[in-house]
Automatic annotation (TrEMBL), chain A:
Protein name in UniProt: FtsW/RodA/SpoVE family cell cycle protein
Lineage, uppermost ranks: Bacteria, Bacillati, Actinomycetota, Actinomycetes, Kitasatosporales
UniProt entry keywords in alphabetical sequence: Cell shape, Membrane, Transmembrane, Transmembrane helix
Transmembrane segments: 28-49, 55-74, 86-104, 129-146, 155-172, 184-213, 234-252, 258-274, 281-301, 366-386, 398-423, 429-451
Topology versus the membrane: Multi-pass membrane protein
Subcellular location: Membrane
A Pfam family assignment: FTSW_RODA_SPOVE
UniProtKB/TrEMBL annotation, chain B:
Record's protein name: Antibiotic biosynthesis regulator FhaB
UniProt feature, compositional bias: Low complexity: 48-62
Region of interest: Disordered: 39-73
Organism for this UniProt entry: Streptomyces thermocarboxydovorans
Pfam families: FHA (PF00498)
InterPro entries listed in its UniProt record: Cell_Proc_Reg/RNA_Proc (IPR050923), FHA_dom (IPR000253), SMAD_FHA_dom_sf (IPR008984)
Keywords: Phosphoprotein
Keyword Transcription regulation among record annotations: no
Keyword Iron-sulfur: no
Length: 478, 168
């Protein structure tokens, strides 16, 4: 833009197009900050529990610093114009998650519980640190090998098949594992993997590739009825298919979270692609109908709904109710500023205290102030994702970034809402905070892809080459 | 560990956490605006190559004004009117002035035509101002332009209420 249009009353200034700085130094400063905070938290937990600074403090700080430092160097080298905030925010959440998982490892109560249940107690924090390293390796791999996110567009339908296979794998006898009622894990070579976490990213590729091509048909061919643009019957096909698939997941895998995530993500992307509010209305109606329908005959879902409606009514009879009740009590006992790290009793939640319910520990030990800060950090990640979508110049990148950040947002909402008793608990993991390898690895890959898109979007356009034709014309002109 | 230390650490941790959030939001702030504002006097980043692709001037007149070497103007400055203080770097591109939105300098001036005038370098690097058939005319010093005229350094060019001049 060479226009110097400035109709307002700026009398002393020049307005020009922004020169797109790379912001890598800003990122480095924030990253240092984001490593120092978890180290502080770690020291705080150690002082509160043992009265001494934990011996692994230095190693932990160096490890986290090294991991995020590698991420930063790779960004400098391979995606210099990427968003400066995503990496520090994710690092901070991952670091805080590690600290709280370590803190729950120290709980006598949870150690006893694990010994009763499995015979031995294995601390989760070392595993989680390893998974974080693997996640960062995947993050680096995404940035190094995915030079341009538009390449993924070629694999639109392959990724649909891939995502469906991943989603259905837990149902295959032999590799599918039924863990505590939900069939969302698979066992391969001694590792249990939650394929739904990866399917989340892969299906976003399909949704964006598909909607990019079909959005005109979905947006324009419609009748107006009561202020809503109703799509034609045949255009309802895809949404009904996704709805059916997510209901099948709900019924056969007993997994409310995953099915909600996929359907919600599709509706969000459909709305963004077509700008038609009617899709949101239709989506909400369909998910309400599906939820009510399934809840009326699937016992697993019924138990969850009962635990949500009245956790203290069935507190003594049902494990699910007791967990929700304990979770709500830990939020309550946290108050405004919390009990302090390492000084709460959130380990009373028992099973899954460090995965699905890790947010309750934050609620108790950091209080409302801490929970709000954590939620704001999530909100900032989502904001950066949507901002990336706004800045992206290609429709595929726009939809892809919206889909990924929408999935991230839905996951945060579903988990945080579940542990606070706002919606029925769904059994998903809080991204980056919760213990769980698949989740942390998949989310690092998600951040890597968002950074790749934002690098493409924010990179300044190359200076237009001087037009040789124009020069020639000038010379030849009589 | 004393109760006091732990309380201080607890509140300190929350403060640090919120400080991080605030710093992050400050970083976002710079992204919210698509333009950069530089104070008067600072040179504008020349990114005006688009204008360079416009058709080369059709008419030239070689009157007065010898070759410019070190005395060549480097920028165009608006000295009067609503755009006072705006500068445009002169980098061999044609600068168009007028109310049309695709002008290099968009004049918000009732007395300006939509395509009012243009300023371009001739083959020798001498900057020329040419009136593009405007209703109210373009004035160099006090004379109304009828033909493309070389611009002396610092001479005021008046278009409606706006006055611009070339500076080193």
């Amino acid at each position: 833009m060479s226009s110097t249009s400035n109709p307002s009353t700026q009398h002393t200034s020049t307005i020009g197009a922004i020169g797109a700085p790379s912001r890598r130094n800003t990122e480095l400063a924030l990253l240092v900050f984001a490593v120092v905070i978890p180290v502080f938290a770690y020291a705080n937990v150690g002082l509160a529990i043992d009265g001494s600074v934990p011996s692994g403090l230095l190693a932990y700080g160096l490890g986290l610093g090294l991991l995020s430092g590698v991420g930063h160097v790779v960004l400098r080298r391979f995606a210099a114009y990427a968003d400066p905030l995503l990496l520090p925010l994710a690092t901070l959440l991952n670091g805080l998650g590690l600290v709280v998982i370590w803190r729950l490892d120290q709980s006598e109560r949870l150690q006893q519980l694990a010994k009763i249940r499995y015979g031995t107690f294995t601390p989760s924090a070392p595993n989680q640190l390893m998974y974080s390293a693997v996640g960062l390796a995947l993050f680096v791999a995404v940035l190094v090998f995915l030079k341009d996110h538009r390449i993924l567009q070629r694999y639109t339908y392959i990724s649909m098949v891939g995502a469906l296979v991943l989603l259905l794998l837990p149902l295959v006898p032999g590799i599918g594992a039924d863990v505590f009622g939900a069939k969302i894990w698979i066992n391969i070579a001694g590792f249990s993997i939650q394929p739904g976490e990866f399917a989340k990213i892969i299906i976003a590729i399909f949704f964006s590739g598909y909607l990019m091509v079909k959005r005109d048909a979905l947006a324009l061919a419609s009748r107006r009825f009561m202020g809503l643009y109703l799509p034609r019957g045949r255009d309802l096909g895809p949404i009904i298919t996704i709805w059916a698939v997510s209901l099948l997941i709900l019924i056969f895998e007993n997994d409310l979270g995953t099915s909600l995530l996929f359907f919600g993500m599709f509706v969000i992307m459909l709305y963004v692609a077509t700008e038609r509010t009617s899709w949101i209305v239709i989506g909400l109606l369909m998910s309400a109908a599906g939820a009510v329908g399934v809840a009326s005959f699937a016992s697993h879902v019924q138990a969850r709904v009962n635990a949500w409606l009245d956790p203290f009514g069935c507190y003594d009879t049902s494990g699910a109710c007791e967990q929700i009740g304990q979770s709500i009590m830990s939020f309550g006992s946290g108050g405004v500023v919390g009990t302090g790290l390492g000084q709460g009793n959130s380990d009373l939640i028992g099973f899954a205290a460090n995965s699905d319910f890790i947010f309750s520990t934050f609620g108790e030990e950091l209080g409302l102030a801490g929970v709000m800060a954590i939620l704001l950090i999530y909100a900032l990640i989502i904001e950066r994702g949507v901002r990336t979508a706004l800045a992206a110049r290609d429709p595929f990148g726009k939809l892809f970034a919206v889909g990924l950040s929408g999935a991230f947002a839905l996951q945060v909402f579903v988990v945080a809402g579940g542990v606070m008793g706002l919606i029925p608990l769904t059994g998903m993991t809080m991204p980056f905070l919760a213990a769980g390898g698949s989740s942390v690895i998949a989310n690092w890959a998600l951040i890597g892809i968002l950074l790749r898109i934002s690098d493409t979007a924010r990179r300044p356009a190359p200076a237009p080459a001087s037009n040789p034709d124009a020069e020639m014309t000038q010379v030849v002109r009589p | 560990m004393s109760e006091l230390t732990l309380t201080v650490m607890r509140l300190g941790f929350l403060a640090v956490l919120w400080l991080f959030v605030i710093v992050a939001v400050q970083v976002i702030r710079s992204d919210l605006f698509g333009t950069r504002v530089t104070q008067r006097g600072a040179r504008r980043d020349g990114r005006a190559q688009q204008a360079a692709r416009q058709a080369p001037p059709q008419q030239r007149q070689q009157s007065g004004g010898g070759r410019r070497g070190r005395n060549a103007p480097t920028k165009l400055v608006v000295t009067e009117g609503t755009l006072t203080g705006t500068t445009v770097a002169l980098q061999g591109q044609t600068i168009t002035l007028g109310r049309a939105h695709d002008s290099t300098i968009v004049l918000d001036d009732d007395y300006a035509s939509s395509r009012h005038a243009r300023i371009y370098p001739d083959r020798d690097g001498q900057w020329i101002v040419e009136d593009l058939g405007s209703t109210n005319g373009t004035y160099l010093d006090r004379t109304r332009l009828t033909t493309p005229t070389p611009i002396p350094l610092g001479a005021p060019i008046r278009i409606g209420k706006t006055v611009i001049e070339l500076r080193k």
